[in-house]
């Protein structure tokens, strides 16, 4: 056996897993990452305007109190270069790089029931073996390319936002962008002032609120640093841990004037999660409550966008139930003469020819650069592209053909000793602390296996089925199934329902883990024993 544990992926999840398994459990551990550097999401997504919209002091590992004291975050939200710098610094500080192979893609993982080991196949054909594997392949990591005739032959510069090259330039160019999700909104806002012309090919208009990003006062920063432990403790009792002060008030229980006041206050303060979860507690649970928020944001769009024809195209008419967005002046960009919105639902893109995007009505837009902000095959996207074979010839692609099924998002049946971070079924919450919960549980389960003098841990199918049912029930108690987005896998044509999230959120997930502990880990078998 080459290693006791192998970790795949060097984002927030993989880096923390390597540290925990190697330093705290003392396992001989190695990490493989297909990127040339560490950082995961923040290594790949270098597009202009990329930022996290979780509060700066919460978009980091919560265990790492020292680094926050020395880390100089200055704005409410961290921009991509700062987050990448933070993760690179984390890898350096804990001396993680010496146990990693970067630029190394994992192509397969096959379980050997005779030796109770995983055989990991690397893309270059080499094989390594390990007792345990932690796959930290990313929630939003496998890029989704649009299926448009002729696009691969585009003769200008074409770039997917999650594969943004360091030397890309857009100044004074004729740029087209497909996609107006969180990414598209950030890119458009960042590049609009500099480009010669921007054609925004919009399929679904978006609800977005101001981010409210800006520099924090020194007092505010000192106050956070001085009370950091307490802030995290309080946050960890919330559902989302986004720092958004979740509301306990229904939108139905206040007068129309009070609703307006609450929405105005949230709009002025900024933050997408703050707006969706901090105004009223039923915006994602109740269509009428949701409708109040929709109408408020639509009225803001009408006020901001001066050209009524453009404003009409930008007005979302469906539910406010995708991942909540925020921006640094998105709608304002459409007041520029050089920025245009093309409604590709009404007039779809027919094909790409040479350097032009051709619309169904025959209109031809010649471009120097085409930006694809078309999102990701979320959740199981990276899993389904690896050959993964568990016990008795089980293959992940077959096992998950009707949608991914996991217990807690960290393990699936027939795949002993294989743990996952951020696979479908993880809490809908700020990611770094949610990742810590999962990785800590994985470390605990490996320790439990050792304490029982066992070499094999496997989750029971009944636990996987139970977790799926819980996730389904919670999702069905929201209006999410009525909206089409990556949250339930609806952005990938033909993809079955993908329950990417446990909608109980962080604090309830933490309670579930405690129940498992108190119950003696009966959801798992150890060396085949109950
Ligand atoms: P990732 O960071 O995606 O890392 C997975 C790694 O696995 C990647 O580096 C990938 O190259 C590697 N990998 C995959 N397959 C293989 C393979 N076969 N072989 C080798 N390596 C492989 N979350 C929030 O909570 N708040 C936010 O504000 C927020 N903003 C976001 C903004 C953007 C633009 C995006 C894309 C995501 C955002 N997220 C946000 C979600 C974000 O993905 C998580 O917060 C977090 O970074 C996920 O970390 P991870 O380690 O699980 O996955
Ligand atoms: P999203 O949120 O999935 O957005 C993708 C966008 O691309 C969305 O506007 C899509 O329109 C659009 N899209 C995708 N394919 C096409 C085609 N073929 N034609 C036209 N438009 C298309 O991805 P993001 O990267 O913005 O954000 C993902 C997450 O990363 C985000 O939630 C953050 O957590 C970070 P649609 O809405 O499907 O009509």
Strand content: 15-25%
How much is the radius of gyration in Å? 23 Å
| Small molecules bound | flavin-adenine dinucleotide, ligand NA7
- Total beta strand runs: 24
**Structure class:** alpha/beta
Model description:
With 530 residues, the chain is of the alpha/beta class. The protein is built from 15 helices and 24 strands. 31% of the residues lie in helices and 19% in strands. The strands form seven sheets. Strands 1, 2, 5, 6, 7, 8, 19 and 20 form an eight-stranded mixed sheet that branches. Strands 9-18-10-11-14 form a five-stranded parallel sheet. Strands 15-16-17 form a three-stranded antiparallel sheet, with no helix packed on it. Strand 1, helix 1 and strand 2 form a beta-alpha-beta unit. The two termini are 27 Å apart. The mean pLDDT is 96. The site of ligand NA7 has 20 residues, from helix 5.
């Amino acid at each position: 056996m080459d290693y006791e544990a192998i970790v795949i992926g060097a984002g927030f999840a993989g880096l923390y897993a390597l540290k925990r398994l190697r330093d705290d459990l003392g396992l001989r551990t190695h990490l493989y990452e297909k990127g040339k550097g560490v950082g995961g999401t923040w290594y790949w997504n270098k597009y202009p305007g990329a930022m996290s919209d979780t509060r700066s002091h919460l978009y980091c590992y919560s265990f790492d109190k020292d680094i926050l004291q020395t880390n100089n975050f200055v704005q409410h939200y961290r921009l991509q270069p700062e987050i990448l710098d933070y993760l690179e610094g984390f890898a350096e500080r804990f001396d993680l790089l010496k146990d990693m192979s970067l630029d190394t893609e994992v192509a397969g993982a096959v379980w050997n029931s005779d030796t109770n080991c995983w055989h990991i196949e690397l893309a270059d054909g080499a094989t390594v073996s390990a007792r345990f594997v932690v796959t930290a392949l990313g929630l939003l990591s496998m890029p989704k390319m649009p299926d448009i005739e002729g696009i691969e032959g585009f003769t200008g510069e074409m770039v997917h936002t999650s594969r943004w090259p360091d030397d890309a330039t857009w100044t004074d160019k004729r740029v087209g962008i497909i996609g107006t999700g969180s990414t598209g909104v950030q890119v458009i806002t960042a590049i609009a002032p500099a480009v010669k012309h921007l054609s925004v090919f919009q399929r679904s208009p978006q609800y977005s609120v101001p981010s409210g990003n800006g520099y924090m006062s020194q007092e505010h920063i000192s106050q956070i640093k001085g009370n950091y432990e307490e802030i995290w403790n309080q946050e960890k009792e919330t559902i989302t841990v986004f720092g958004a002060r979740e509301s306990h008030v229904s939108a139905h229980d206040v007068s129309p004037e009070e609703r307006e006041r609450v929405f105005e206050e949230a709009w002025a303060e900024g933050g997408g999660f703050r707006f969706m979860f901090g105004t009223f507690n039923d915006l994602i649970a109740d269509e009428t409550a949701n409708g109040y928020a929709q109408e408020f944001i639509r009225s803001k769009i009408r006020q901001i966008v001066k050209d009524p024809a453009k404003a009409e195209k930008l007005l979302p008419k469906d539910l406010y139930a995708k991942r909540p967005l925020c921006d640094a002046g998105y709608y304002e960009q459409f007041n520029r003469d050089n920025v245009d919105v093309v409604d590709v639902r009404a007039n779809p893109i027919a094909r790409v020819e040479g350097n032009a995007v051709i619309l169904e009505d025959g209109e031809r837009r010649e471009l120097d650069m085409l930006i694809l902000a078309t999102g990701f095959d979320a959740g199981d996207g990276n899993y389904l592209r690896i050959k993964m074979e568990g016990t008795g010839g089980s293959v992940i692609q077959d096992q998950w053909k009707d949608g991914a099924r996991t217990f807690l998002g960290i393990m699936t049946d027939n795949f002993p000793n294989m743990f996952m971070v951020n696979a479908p079924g993880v809490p809908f919450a700020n990611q770094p602390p949610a990742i810590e919960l999962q990785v800590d549980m994985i470390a605990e389960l490996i320790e439990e296996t050792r304490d029982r003098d066992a070499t094999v841990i496997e989750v029971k199918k009944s636990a996987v089925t139970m977790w799926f049912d819980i996730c389904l029930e919670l999702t069905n108690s929201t209006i999410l199934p009525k909206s089409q987005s990556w949250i339930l896998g609806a952005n990938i044509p033909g993809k079955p329902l993908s329950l990417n999230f446990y909608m109980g959120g962080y604090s309830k997930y933490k309670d579930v883990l405690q129940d498992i502990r108190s119950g003696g880990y009966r959801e798992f078998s150890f060396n085949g024993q109950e």
